Amino acid sequence: MKKLSIALVVFMMGCTSIPEDVTPVDNFRLEKYLGKWYEIARLDHSFERGLSQVTAEYSLRDDGGVRVLNRGYSAKDDSRKEAEGKAYFVKKPDQGYLKVSFFGPFYGSYIVFELDENYQYSLVSGPDKSYLWILARRPEIGEDLKNTLTAKAAAAGFDTSKLIFVDHDKSLASQPH
Q1: pLDDT digits (tens, 9 = 90+) for 58-105
Q2: Where is the Lipocalin/cytosolic fatty-acid binding domain (predicted)?
Q3: In the chain, what are the domain boundaries?
Q4: CATH assignment, 2-165
Q5: What is the pLDDT of residues 17-38, one digit of tens each?
């Protein structure tokens, strides 16, 4: 947990900028985005390295922000990792452009730049093109959708050849969920 938190601090010290060729979605509805998302794929970073079964849960905070709870399983340590953060809209609440912090006053961009109308999958960027996540409401998505989302990320300039596709096989973990 401590290692995960320290690594997240380094990420959050980045900034809240928007990478070139990435445009936050408009008509974003937070109430539809709240809930549990499964990480389908990501670009590698130390704070998630080696984790499988990665999820993110979003809920409302009393101060109007968003509670972010990230969880994953480390087979190497045979343990669950968890990090809790907070997020706030950067400009307006109907744009998928937030800033997120897992520690103190340091924030990094959380940019939803692709989102289906039913809020079943999304593409999310950080402050630069080394941060990319494909998220979905289920732990698995079809190959066609996976290919479509990967192509959209590539068209925006992300190096999708380096995507790590996340294993959600719960039999890997010896600990209960």
Answers
A1: 999 999 999 999 999 999 999 999 999 999 999 999 999 999 999 888
A2: 30-166
A3: 2-165
A4: 2.40.128.20
A5: 999 999 999 999 999 999 999 9
